[in-house]
Design brief:
Elements: H1 4-8, H2 23-39, H3 41-52, H4 62-74, E1 81-82, E2 88-93, E3 99-105, E4 119-121, E5 124-126, H5 134-149, E6 157-163, H6 173-182, E7 189-193, E8 200-204, E9 206-215, E10 219-220, H7 230-242, E11 252-261, E12 267-268, E13 271-280, H8 283-306, E14 316-325, H9 335-346, E15 353-356, H10 361-366, E16 370-373, E17 378-380, E18 388-390, H11 397-410
Parallel strand pairs: 3-6, 3-7, 7-16, 8-15
Antiparallel strand pairs: 1-2, 2-6, 4-5, 5-18, 8-16, 9-13, 9-14, 10-12, 11-13, 17-18
Helix pairs in contact: 2-11, 3-5, 5-11, 7-8, 9-11
Amino acid sequence: MRPLLAVLSALPLVAVAQEPPRPDRYAARLQPSLAALQRDNAWTLDQQAAVCQVPAPPFKEAARAAWYQQALVRLGYPDTRIDREGNVIAELKGGDGPTVMLAGHLDTVFPEGIDASVRRDGTRMDGIGIGDDCRGLAVVLAVAKTMKEQRLVPAGRILFVGNVGEEGPGNLRGVRHLLEQEFRGQVDYFISVDGVGQNIVSRAVGSHRYTITIAGPGGHSYGDFGMPNPTHALGRAIARIGDLDVPGRPRTTFNVGIVRGGTSVNSIAMRAQMDIDMRSEDARSLADLDRRIRAAVDTAVAQEMARWPQSTTKLTVSYDTIGIRPTGAQSDDAPIVRVAMETARLVGFAPRTSASSTDANLPIAMGIPAIAIDGGGRGDGAHSLAEWYDDGPDGYKGPQWALLLVTALAGLR
């Protein structure tokens, strides 16, 4: 590890008009804390496994939130609360310096009834959500524990958060509530710990997600044959969408993820639906893709009705919004990104920056300095039943990175 003094003395430790702590005193105080995180790594892994075995389907995160609240209370944060949106919030306040929010998300993509048990084999753990985002939740707990036990008092305020609503249908409702209501105008820096590895998300990939419904009266597959069929129209629409060309730069994507409808094999469906996801880190490219997909659906419906000119049956189209995530550009020269890069290098990481869709989307779009960082270790299979995490020989460096980052931004008394 490079000497803390050399690195921290070069960092913009506090980005507001407040006297930063002396780098030499600050560096000396952090050495025992970094050692504690390495020494307590088995505890961190136990928390990661334990929280993951409390199911947290979209919009049903309450059981995991209650577990997380009690975990923070046991760590010495008796005023930990759950807000009306379901977010878990603990505060560590020392002075009037910057407010830094450190968050992991509680929700998973998996519905109720999926086996949430975690299987452990050495440093490897297998289980749904074990990396995304049980790892992030464990890192937040590890930082909260170390700051309390090592008596690290920020020059400002650190908010330790387990938030709801990060995954698909959640539409960032947890962070939206935190930044627009609970702490409106109060957060100077936002850090999401989301996933595994050693990298930084510094730019926000926006997304538009809809349930598109094509509807008609339906009928008997034999007796009413000859009327426009919503399912056939949906198939035409999917085929047209699948043929769309999209730019590689800025990277723009689309996906029809779920198709549903109909009541029986011998019935003309009254309704056919698809759930579609579109993404881009460029707002104009995303808006253009949205327009083109709507045009593809309209053309497909018109073609289906034209296929049966003798029928007076009409088909209708409706769009129900699943979620809209804003895009946001943030330079890699931004102070929060530079501090994240330097503190990562301090623990031995060589991070890359990238664009993705995370809880940081909203604060970036609001003009709040924000990033998402990985939680250390390695893993794969996010959003699948085969998800795994392996702490390896240096997984403890993930919590070390998070600690250095939040204290660099909030300062220390």
